[in-house]
Structures are given as structure tokens and as C-alpha cells.
Amino acid sequence: MVIVLGYECARISDEIQNTFPENLSITLTCNIDYKIGRASTIKQGILSAAKDSNGFLLIGVDQPTEGHIVARIIKEHEASGMLISSPRYKNKGGHPVLFSNTLKGELLEINDDTLGLKPVFENYRSRLNRIDFETGQVRLDINDYQSYTHNYELFGNKT
Fold it and tell me: What is the DSSP string of 7-51?
């Protein structure tokens, strides 16, 4: 697992190292270009991944998810033989998205000026594994306090 950090990387990496068990294989990397855009963070993660990685599961900090969602995406991706697996809710794409390692070269070419991952999706739409979910949680995108509080009421308070 690779975790790419940007703003306050040193402080956050200390917290992560103190929170997770020592035997958990986590690579922490700092993206010093995080202000440039999301593409630089994705590329930093791919470059920091193990050379023999089967694929790249992209989970943005503003797109929280749960383990059972991630597990299903990985399982169905492996079974499908497709190059990209995307969760869906009501026929709309969601998060996280899993890319086959065979797309590594193209993923390293993305940039925010050309809409990031969009060209990769367009090039491989016929090789896209669409995984339907019954929960809108796969569409979460928390970009401000209002969306945070709204989504917390929907998904976060499970006690």
C-alpha cells in the first residue's frame, strides 16, 4: 500500500506511522508538487508502488470508502480481466477506481491540463468493468464542509 501525502506531509506521516501496526506494509511518500494538481499525486503513488504491483487502486482523501467496497472492487477486477474497474451507483461512476498495471505508462502521462484520468477512461471504455453498488457511498466526494456534514449524516454515523 502506498499513501501519498501533500500538505503537512511530515506531521501526517508521523501520525500514520504511529497509528498503524509496524508489520503492515505501508510506503509513505510526499508529493512536493501537490499544489500543481491531483495528477502529480497519482503519478507519485504509481512511481512509489512495488514494481510487481498488479494494479493501482486510487482512493482520494476527499472520497472516503469502506473495506468491503474496496474488497469487492479488487475481487471483481481480478475476475473480469478488464483494464479498469469502476464502482457505479445509479449508472454513474464512483470511487475508488482500479487500474491494471498494464496501464502504468499511460497513467504516468496524465496531467491536469488534459483532464487527468479522463483520457485513460476514454481510451479504454470498452475494457471498463462497471461494478454496480446499491449504496451512494461510492459517489462520495467531499470538497467542502457542507458536503462533509451532509455525507457524515448519511454514511458516517453508524453507531
Answer: TTHHHHHHHHHHHS-TTS--EEEE-TTGGG-HHHHHHHHHHHS-T
pLDDT tens digits along 42-92: 999 999 998 999 999 998 887 888 889 999 999 999 999 999 999 999 999
Identify the CATH number of the domain defined by range 2-156: 3.90.550.10
CA distance 122 to 112: 15
Q: Residue 73, class by beta-carbon neighbours within 10 Å (0-12 exposed, 13-18 middle, 19+ buried)? A: buried
Q: Taking the model in full, what pTM does it have? A: 0.86
CA angle, corner 138, sides to 61 and 151, nearest 5?
A: 70
Write down the domain spans for the chain: 2-156
Nine-digit cell string for 112:
491536469
